[in-house]
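Think of the structure tokens as a kind of shorthand, similar to the way a musician reads notation: each symbol stands for something richer, in this case the local conformation of the backbone. In the example below we present two proteins back to back. Begin with the first one, reading the sequence and then the tokens, and try to describe in your own words what changes along the chain.
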Amino acid sequence: MTTVSKSKPKIKRFRDPLSPKPILDRAALAKALRSNGVSLKDHQLDSFYQLLHRSGYPPLREFVAELRGGGDRGSVASACDNDGGSVSVAEGSGTGSSNFRTKNAISSRPGRRPQLPKSFLSYLADNIDDYATLTSKVQMHRTSEDGTTTKIVVELQDKHVVESVLMRHEGRVTICISSQVGCAMGCTFCATGTMGMRGNLSQGEILEQLVHGSRILARSTSSDEGEAGDDEMIESTSIPEEERSKKRRGRNKRPDLIRNVVFMGMGEPLNNYSNVLATCRALIDRRLWNLSHNRVTVSTVGVPARMRDLTRDLPEVNLALSLHAPDQETREQIVPAAKGAPVESLIEALDEHMMALAKRKLMGNRNPQQGGDRDGNFAVGTAEFNVEERRSASKKKRAMIEYVMLEGDTSTIEAAHKLGKLCEGRHLVVNLIPYNKTDVKDKLACPSEERMQEFRRIVSSYGSFCSIRRTMGADIAGACGQLVVEQEKGQSSVGDIEDGPFRKDGVGKRPITLSLKRDGKNKHDDQRSDKHPKSEAMEVDPWVRRLTVATAIVASCFVVSGTLLLLQKRKR
């Protein structure tokens, strides 16, 4: 009798060429059009993507058929111009719009009819099998028991898997997206780093994560049948304009719209610079996702040259630096990619990004005869800005430092003073991330709550805003990269910490760091590590204890005051 051993599935270490290609990959589509002799102006391509976005990203074959006048719905009116060879497209193509709401003030204006060249639509129709609206699919998604966090596992067409996470706050939703399959940075505390580098995501594949997230979000927060009537009522001319404006703002804050996007998922975004930059531009494009500049954040372990490129190309978006250590020697021990990128140069590049807009304004006020560099820019150092200018710049945009709290040299009192001095006078935001156990070879641990609070107070004393990141979605293992590692290794692991905004509730709010352990009745216990017992008691957070004590003292003072007041009245 022979026994057959089950072998693990072979893990792909590279990416296959995309076929079909993502239609959302604008640069690739533009290149293909040029190579096939199709003339298309930039604003015409803008109009195509605008219509595709507002239509809810339907299947490409169906969408192109409607644009050419072959659809049954009649939602896209077409009229061929014999002289210009173009098609007039009426806005409002509604395919798929039932589960995809957009925020787009400009494209919703009535009476605007973009002109799409007939040759362009013919090219798409003739090559319809070479492109697809969505080349990826949602393999699974799971929402936490409190309904705030949804983890989305996206399967790419070459069977690689990436992850994104939806995070719901009061009146806003944040999505964290991946930019690469795997990661080459090799941080010792990060489970995603154990995967190695598989390849970059195209612009289309990155944007598809937002499409998947938006659809899941819309389905989970679908409103009642009166929503359309409510929208019509808001636009009614019988309502004063001021009241209509308030209602519009309230409608746009409903939690069925993605308001913030952060590149804090799998991969190093700045190592996929061109695709990440193109994605950021699509996100802030008012014809498409229409996000505010300060609602888009790019996180990096530290690629100084690319950080400066981002400052030059798109200074309006936010930049977050994953520092994790206050000096170069210590940082190289936990972040191997830090070699050749001194901490001081990273902080300087981060500071330059924060002050870029103020610098541009200052240069605009200078006399051109004062001279500039070879690119025509005036040399203005960040040291020229005073405290008030820095404070004003920090309010308008965020330059953030992410710092994982590990037991050891990086979380000592001395390290806190080093980090504080490193950021002193720059008005940077420092976000402390409690370490969560991951399936990595090094045995690491998180410092105590008291140690982290002391670390935060020391850093804050140097003038930086310092907070401790909030933990959310623990019951669905909401850390980025975790499930991918589980699938590849065939075992359970506990979360990766490079999960960006899923463990914070925004700058300026008091951090909440509740440590909760699930009991044996939780339906997700079978996905937890065998190292953790299935029945555990809930740990009471130190802040809860302090709040309880403070409440008891206040209540006692109230009782004593009331008693004394009654005694005084009796004496009278």
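Once you have a description of the first chain, move to the second and do the same.
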Amino acid sequence: MATSTAAKKGVAGRIDYDSWEKRASNLSKELDEEDEQEKEAAASALGLDGKHARSQAEAEEKSKAEEMQKAKQRLEAYQKREQGVTETLSGLLGPVGDDDTTAKVEEKHQEIKYITRESIGAGKRVLTIADTKGPGKIVLTQDLSNLESRTATNTSLKPKSYDDDAENKEEMPEATVHRGIIKLNLRNLHQCTVVVKCKIITGTIEISHCEDVTLIVEGDDATAATIQADLCTNLDIQFHDAPSGKNIPLRVRDTNSGPTTTLFWGQDVNDRIYHAGVSNLRVRTYRDGFVDLETTSDYKKNGAKAVGNAAAEEVQFVTSVIEDELITERVLKPGDSKEIKQGARPMTERELRELEKKKSQIEEALDEKLKDLIQIKEKNGGGAVVKEVEKKAVEKEEVIEEVYASATKEEIEAIVSSIEDQKAKGNEAFTSGEYAQAILLYTMALDEAARLPDVSNVTEKLSTSVVSEPLEQLFPRHVILSNRSACFLKLGHHEKALKDGSDAEILNPAYVKGVFRKGLALHAMGRYREAIDALAKAQKVEPKNKQIKQALQFAEVRLHQEMRKRMET
């Protein structure tokens, strides 16, 4: 506490009032500061200083605000990075104007603009075509497929080693080189055609505020697995022999062997067109110059309606190939998925039912396979005693908890959920063209699967190398093995691709993708006769699969060419 000081006498014994007033002012200021400090200390003790929440509700609101701020910062950082690599080409066919009559439009010259690497600035890999009006055509040439981008290696992941593999390295691999543009954006285009012939690394095209626009994706390089269209009118999307996002091209030595595409757009579940607020959408797939599949869609005719603050234009739909037909479905809102996940991809009502059915089948299989293994907990507090007994021998008053071999049902479900997450991340990396990253994620999923109680059965089955009946598993490992095989094929590691494809076939011969990728690996290794045998097995499982049929034809042609060369020599 501050102490008072007597005022000094001034000249001729008079009081120095100026000095006294100054000292009084300082003393008053000190007292105010001490009073404020005491208030702050009291507020802090009561949790009223703003640093601590006064209630659970306030704590939750504060946490949400902090998360929103972090999300905003991440979004701003992402937008800043994207702006740094984005090339925007505006007015290529002419400016957007409202004064052009139909007659004037018909008189305008049908201009064609070709986009090459020279059209893109240094370091620019995201291409935006915006604010232009035709008539005319904009062509993204194959030359853009020669653009290079590098992805740094995830140093937090340890490289996987394989027994007796000469390629094992202690160091992480170098940065991955990707070729093509990263993403394509089409914004505010009118009365024109856009032709995509180049590689799109992410396989993503975003279209918004376009009218009377035709998008043509054609050629072996043009990969557009996912298209998002918003607020467009009279949009025509065409795929001319365009590959799927998971296409594994066959490597050929000459240019007279036909297309190298083995999986066309629509033949994988991740090939999709999402659209919201799009009027008069038309989607077509072409094969060898002829229309293969076709459908139309309109958000109003599909039943989109405003709900609360959400307008009808915000209702999301998805068009994809289902059982050899182009089908449009409504996408579920995040709260309608009943906490069931399928990776990052939005779900439809049909997919939700399928996942619920799959989950139910897994639970029933667990109950049936391991129903005789239970854990009995005594009521007297003496601890848990584990016994293998028949359920019927358990007394009603005992507390029973089912266990599955060395793990409880809850533990198994947690492991399965972890495997699903790693698998979904691997699928996303594969779709983005990050095949080395996808291999690591799929390997982590398989390592996680090794924690399941049925691992001994799986190991024993694989050690026999005998293809027989499908093995009952707590998680379908053959799916992950098949996916990893596809990654190895993409990177040219044909022996590893063959190993994973063969293991997938051993675990489940009926899973056609595993057998098919085994055949592709054998083909890439020049073992055409064995490739024909494997592809013939795959075709027997799915006789209507055009991809398998074409790969089989390639293998037969190669075998005949090889035999002819031997005869000539």
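Compare your description with these statements about the second chain. DSSP finds twelve helices and 20 strands in the chain.
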